[in-house]
Structure formats: C-alpha cells, structure tokens
C-alpha cells in the first residue's frame, strides 16, 4: 500500500461527503486506503460513512470511538487518540491526515507529492499551501510559507517558526515514531514535528486543499487558550527530543511571552483542564510562564531565545 489517508470525524454529516469526494477525485497511479475514525457522532455522520464504505469496500475502513452521553471530554485528547488509532491500522508507506470537514482542491495532490518523496529518500515530508475556507464559500490563502518551491532541513524549519498544517503534508510512515506517552498530543503541530525528525521538508507554494473555518474551531478559540495549548506543545516537544530544545523554544517564544504578560489570569481557576494537563505531564515551561516567576531557569532560557528570534527577524527585514 502506498498511501494511508486518515480522516477524523465528529458530527460532520453535512461535510463528510465533500471531503470523501475530494479524496476519490484524486488522479494517481499510487494505491491508497482510507481510514475513517469517527469520534462517537450523534448525527448521521456514521450513516454517510457506511454508504461510502459500501461503495468502496476494499479501500475504506471505519473505526468508531465510544462516547458517553452528556460526558464532557477533552477535545484535544479525543482527536489525538482518534488519529493515533488510525495510525496503528495504517498500512501505507506514506501517511496523511485530514479532518472530516476539510477537502482537497487539486486532484493531482497525491501524485505530485508522492512522486517527489519517491525520487528523494532524504525528504521525510512533502507539503503545500492551503486556503482558509469560510462558511459563505469564500476562500483566503494561508500566508505562503515560502514564495517558491523549497527544500529545508527539518530542524531549521522548526526553529524558523513557520507553520504548515499537517493536512498539507504527506509523510513517510516510518518517520512517525513515539510512545504512548504522546498519544494525547498527536495534534497538527506534533504530527509535523515528528515527521521532521528524520529528514528534510519539501514545500510546494500552491494551494491544494481547503481548511474549513468553523466558529467553534481551533483557529477561532480564545487567544489565551490557544497560546496555552501551543506552550504545552513546546513542553511535549522538548520531552520528546531534548536535542531540538533550542529550536522549539525559538518556535514557541512568542506564545510563551504572551502568557507571561497575562497579568490577571489565574491558570488553575481560569483554565482548569489545561492546568491539569500541564501538571500531569510535568510541563515545566507552561507552568513557569503562568507562575510569573521571572527568576526561573525556564523563563531565562525562553527570554534568550525570544531575543534571538527578534534579532533574526530584524536582520531579515533590514536585508529586504
């Protein structure tokens, strides 16, 4: 099997057909399987999935996560565990992840990206740009990571702070290695981080997919919450690979210092679920940022890397 397409869903009965249509519209010489993980949807999402599975029984497999009615779940943990379960069943040499409400807009995506990876074993990820897709049907391109086709070392890319959505990536399956400790943190950021550990990133400056913007989606979450989540990612990255510590500190320095400036926030009281996560996983940098203790070693390290990032950006701006 060449490619495993891992799709996660939760109450997406209105969107899942468009997502799957975009997958099966791909014109490619490569074989692919579609693994769908449904997070206990209460609408007709599963019925839609079963209709597609009936149509493509040799390609589609679905997995259902149990969900107790009226129980409050940690959405980050649930989505991550859903993806990890699909990863365990994936048979492809390459892997890609897709949320069940997003969709491809270029039917040569699979062919283009896998061709590149087949020709260049030193690349672990092939990626491209995407569009934001709004409820009224309009789109807006992501800021281009690079203005032209580019190959960059994984560690250098991570330190740059540039963002590529995991859905834009096709990744070598054997590049993604981790223990159960990280099962709850298998989000977009960590997927790309893992994929870059063993190779270079190839980037195509072309929009090949639409990223749907929902009012309750991550990109529209309250800003402080987003910065806490991203700083917890910083801690998990450092725990996974201490050798990339400086890169991760540079990448997440702005989120870290945003939290340092949140003067009136009481972490334990205002964000109890995230506070519990930070304690459970010994997220030292997250806890130090929110403790406001300016003399902690973590704060000093983060400050040094923040100043490095600011200096680099100032130099690049001057060069332009």
Provide a descriptive summary of the structure in words.
Strand 2 (32-38), helix 2 and strand 3 (60-64) form a beta-alpha-beta unit. Helix 9 runs parallel beside helix 12. The protein has helices spanning 16-24, 45-55, 75-89, 109-119, 154-160, 188-195, 223-240, 245-251, 253-260, 267-270, 272-280, 284-291, 297-319, and strands at residues 3-9, 32-38, 60-64, 94-99, 103-104, 123-133, 139-141, 150-153, 170-172, 200-212. The chain is globular and about 60 Å long. With 320 residues, the chain is an alpha/beta fold. Strands 1, 2, 3, 4, 5, 6, 7, 8, 9 and 10 form a 10-stranded mixed sheet that branches. The model has no long low-confidence stretch (mean pLDDT 90). The N and C termini lie far apart (46 Å). The chain is 43% helix and 19% strand.
What is the strand and helix layout of this fold?
Blueprint lengths: L2 E7 L6 H9 L7 E7 L6 H11 L4 E5 L10 H15 L4 E6 L3 E2 L4 H11 L3 E11 L5 E3 L8 E4 H7 L9 E3 L15 H8 L4 E13 L10 H18 L4 H7 L1 H8 L6 H4 L1 H9 L3 H8 L5 H23 L1
Parallel strand pairs: 1-2, 1-4, 2-3, 6-10
Antiparallel strand pairs: 4-9, 5-10, 6-7, 6-9, 8-10
Helix pairs in contact: 5-8, 7-9, 8-13, 9-12, 9-13
């Amino acid at each position: 099997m060449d490619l495993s397409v891992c799709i996660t869903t939760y109450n997406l009965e209105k969107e899942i057909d468009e997502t799957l249509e975009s997958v099966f519209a791909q014109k490619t010489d490569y074989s692919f399987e579609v693994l769908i993980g449904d997070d206990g949807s209460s609408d007709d999402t599963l019925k839609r999935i079963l209709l597609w599975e009936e149509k493509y029984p040799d390609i589609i497999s679905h997995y259902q996560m149990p969900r107790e009615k009226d129980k409050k779940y940690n959405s980050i943990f649930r989505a991550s565990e859903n993806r990890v379960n699909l990863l365990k069943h994936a048979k492809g040499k390459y892997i890609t992840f897709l949320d069940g409400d997003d969709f491809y807009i270029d039917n040569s995506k699979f062919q283009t990206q896998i061709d590149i990876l087949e020709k260049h074993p030193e690349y672990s990820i092939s990626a491209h740009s995407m569009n934001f897709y709004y409820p009224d049907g309009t789109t807006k391109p992501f800021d281009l990571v690079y203005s032209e086709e580019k190959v960059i070392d994984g560690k250098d890319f991570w330190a740059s702070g540039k963002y590529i959505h995991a859905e834009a990536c096709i990744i070598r399956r054997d590049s993604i290695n981790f223990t159960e400790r990280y099962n709850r943190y298998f989000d977009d950021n960590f997927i790309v981080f893992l994929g870059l550990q063993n190779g270079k990133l190839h980037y195509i400056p072309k929009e090949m997919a639409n990223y749907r913007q929902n009012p309750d989606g991550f990109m529209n979450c309250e800003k402080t919450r987003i910065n806490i989540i991203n700083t917890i990612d910083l801690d998990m990255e450092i725990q996974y690979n201490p050798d990339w510590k400086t890169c991760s500190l540079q990448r997440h320095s702005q989120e870290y210092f945003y939290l340092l400036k949140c003067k009136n926030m009481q972490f334990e009281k205002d964000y109890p679920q995230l506070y519990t996560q930070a304690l459970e996983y010994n997220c030292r940098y997250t806890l130090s940022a929110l403790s406001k203790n300016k003399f902690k070693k973590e704060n000093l390290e983060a400050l040094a890397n923040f100043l490095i990032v600011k200096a680099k950006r100032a130099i690049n701006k001057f060069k332009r």
